[in-house]
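Q: My labmate handed me this sequence with no annotations at all. I'd like to see what the chain might look like in three dimensions before we decide whether it's worth expressing. Could you predict it?
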Amino acid sequence: MRNYYRVLHSGGPDGEIGASLRYLSQRFTAPNRMVAAVLNDVGTEELAHLEIVSTIVHQLTKDLSMEEIDLMYKQFIDKLNSKTSNAQL
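A: Here is what I predict for the chain of 89 residues:
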């Protein structure tokens, strides 16, 4: 379960990993070298953002037990679900 928490902070398909992989894969079908270079630079920058977010998450959670992480995750999901259900009213 701990690996799931490591991936969770990356934002899923709309997060930093997803954006980086999209930019880096699109460079292979770019119409010219300049466009490919820009896509490569942007994809690399997205990877740098992922490194920053990962470092912050690590620093905030390095001294927590797995039980504390589970509790924090459950509280986050409950809060997210309550905001979603309130927005639908």
